[in-house]
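The step that takes the researchers longest sounds almost clerical: writing a folded protein down as plain text. Below is the pair of lines this work produces for a single protein:

——
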Amino acid sequence: MNGIKSTSKWVLAIALIVAGTMHFANTGFFMKIMPPYLPLHKELVILSGAFEILLGVLLLVPRCSRLAAWGIIALLIAVFPANIYLYQHQDILPASPTIHLLRLPLQGVLILWAFWHTREATQHRDVRPEFNRQ
């Protein structure tokens, strides 16, 4: 299981770093999906991108990975209004309504993925009570 979890951690970290980098490479797109009720669109796009990169890197640092996973969960929750806004304004990103709809529960999958990394990998232990061991 450790190999799978390690690979999963690397894939999630790389995905976050790439997504965060896109906030800087294509700031205009991310500004379009910002709900109008939020202030400072450009600053929030840059800040969320920087946090995605930082949390992706920290996920790979053993001392920081659990905290980084919790930070990823918080970030995914924080950016969810942008996903809802994009669903409500599908002309921003031309795709089928089904694709737009599927993006919403995908956020939950990403949260569960990050949550898996809030738990340390466990070794198999004998958890039987002492008097039952032979």
Q: What stands out?
A: Residues 20 and 49 are 4 Å apart (CA to CA).
